[in-house]
Design brief:
Elements lengths: L1 H10 L19 E3 L12 E3 L3 H14 L2 H7 L2 H7 L7 H15 L6 H5 L5 H9 L6
Antiparallel strand pairs: 1-2
Amino acid sequence: MIVDRLTRAVAQVPAVPDDLDDGDFEKVSGVVELPVHIRWSGPPRRYDVADRQQRARVYERVLREGNEDDVRRFIRVDDLIDMWDELVLPRHVRRAWADWLEHRRGVSLSDENTQRGLLLPPRVRAESAESPREDR
């Protein structure tokens, strides 16, 4: 069951629209509810995209599950760059977006996380490395 979910997640090609940075698309603001095809499990939930932590959760879900129209609607490139180290994304999603940002914006986000293809951003990995492991 877990292997099946992992295989399905890796098989899904991230939506990375070439025209995201064109500025022709109206972005969401305030309190939003994600479409069912993005937040498909659990009851509907509202997110306040003015709140950095809630916006990060929206970005993670949209970048993993959204289509190109969702990305155009929910993702602001400057915010994505600013929150990059806080986002927990599958390696194929992180790599696709790092490539897009380098090509379109000239921003190199090839952090250790992207190079090694790890899921956790550097901040989260550093915190977990500092925490002592409990013996089982």
